[in-house]
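Entry 0007
Protein: Ketosteroid isomerase homolog
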Amino acid sequence: METKNQQLFREFNEAMVKGDSEKILESVTDDIVWRMVGNDTIKGIENLEQALQGMENGNQFELEIEHLITHGKEGVVNGIIHSTDKSGEQRHYSFCDIYKLNKHKDGNIKEIISYVLEI
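Output (structure tokens):
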């Protein structure tokens, strides 16, 4: 059985692949910092909302979570994302996200560090 924080991180990742901006935004703090290693850093919920709008490209995604580990206010999720574009071309990405919550119980995500590699 998953803990409440494990459930939060699983649902957050599922919302990302489904493009559920509402769920994503309600899961983070207003001062969210999302660092995508080797890419951009998003600071603040307004900038995150703009970035999410830019991600709507019509691709279909499938999430495969391999590990979901939590301890206190921190968590790590890794796995594979399968992407299929409109023409049917598939791409696969291995990811690892490190999360920090603003508080241990009923917290929201205040920091994310993401590592993504096409495989």
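Curator remark: Helices lie at 4-18, 21-26, 45-54. The first strand starts at residue 28 and ends at 36.
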